[in-house]
Amino acid sequence: MKDIGYRIKCIRKENNLNQTQFAKSIGISQGNLSEIEMGNINPSAETLISLRQQYNVNLNWLLTGSEADDGTTYKDVSEEQLLEGYRKLNDYDKLEIIEIVELKNRLRSNV
């Protein structure tokens, strides 16, 4: 089984970044990143949070290597796409989407 350092390296490679660029983006030194990728040290909680925020990483996958059921279920692919897209929005845009959904529901209930 691959360790957390390997998964972090995969994230970096998927984003076509060298260690210096990637380390800077998550707020650690290149040397620290190198040690994490080699499996010599584990990332701090702050580093994990930064990875989640910067690269939209599933923390369960990052920590365990598997996408265990987190209790989230989707009725269909479009619902999953909507939720994943919503999670990437800023707070203002999220509120706007909520208002649109509420409006659509009010309009439908009046039909």
UniProtKB/TrEMBL annotation:
UniProt keyword DNA-binding, yes or no: yes
SUPFAM superfamilies tied to this protein: lambda repressor-like DNA-binding domains
Annotated ranges, domain HTH cro/C1-type: 8-62
UniProt entry keywords in alphabetical sequence: DNA-binding
Alphabetized PROSITE patterns for the sequence: HTH_CROC1
GO cellular component: cytosol
Domain of life: Bacteria
Example of a GO MF term: DNA-binding transcription factor activity
SMART domains: HTH_XRE
Entry-linked InterPro entries: Cro/C1-type_HTH, Lambda_DNA-bd_dom_sf, TransReg_Diox_bact_type
Name of the protein described by the UniProt record: Helix-turn-helix domain-containing protein
